[in-house]
Amino acid sequence: MDERERVARLKQGDAEAFDQIYAEYSQRLYGFLLRLSGRRDLADDLFQETWLRLVRHAERLRDDSDLGAWLYTVARNLHHSRGRLTRLEERVRVELTQTPATGDGGEQAAARMRLERLEAALLELPEASREVLLLVVVDGVTQDRAAAVLGLSHEALRQRLSRARQLLRERLDEAARSRKSG
Fold first, then answer.
1. Which of 18, 65, 67, 181 has the fewest CB atoms inside 10 Å of its own CB, making it the most exposed?
2. 71 touches 29 (CB < 8 A)
3. Which residues, at least 6 apart from 124, have a Cβ–Cβ distance to it below 8 Å?
4. How confident is the model over 85-137, as pLDDT tens digits?
5. Which is nearest to 65 in space by CA: 4, 120, 107, 24?
6. Left (φ > 0), alpha (ψ -120 to 50) or beta: where does 14 sit?
7. Domains and CATH numbers, the chain
8. Tens digit of pLDDT for each residue in 36-58?
9. Rounded to two decimals, what is the model's pTM?
10. How far is residue 40's CA from residue 35's CA, in Å, rounded to a whole number?
11. What letter would DSSP give residue 58?
12. Contact call for residues 83 and 33 (beta carbons, < 8 A)
C-alpha cells in the first residue's frame, strides 16, 4: 500500500493502516525521542502522545501527507513543549521548596519576594488547578497517582495539568508586567 492509500485508510479509521504505519515508524520514532530527551520515561510519554495525536488528528490529515515527517514533527514539538513546561515546573519547585538560608540580606529578600509572588499566583488559580500543580509539580507525585488521588482519568489529569500550567504562567507574567509598570 502506498503512502496516499495509507493516509486515506487511516483517515477512515482503518486499524490495519495504523498498524502498518506503527510497524514502519515506531522503532525509529522511539529512538529519536529517546536520544532527544535522554530519558526513557520522558521518551515513553512523548512516544505515546505522538501516536495518540495521530489517532486524534487522522481525519484532518492532508491526502498528500508525509506520515514520517508528520510523526517526527509532532514528536519534536511535543519534546520542545515538554521542555518549556519542565523549566517552569523546576522554577516553581525550587521557589516553593527552598528558603534562602545563605547569601546576603538582599539575596534572601529577593528570594522571599519571588516565593511570595509565586504563592500569590498559585492562590489566584482555581482550586482544581492549584491542587494538580501542587501534587505533580511541587510534591512530585506521578501523573498516574495524581489522577487516582483526584478521581480523574489520565487524559483528564493531563488536560487539567496543562491548563493549570498555562494559568500559572499567565499569572506570573501578569505580575511581572504589573511590577514593571508600577
1. 181
2. yes
3. 171
4. 666 666 676 666 665 555 566 776 776 777 778 878 888 888 888 888 888 88
5. 4
6. beta
7. 3-84 (1.10.1740.10), 98-181 (1.10.10.10)
8. 888 888 889 899 999 999 999 99
9. 0.51
10. 9
11. G
12. no
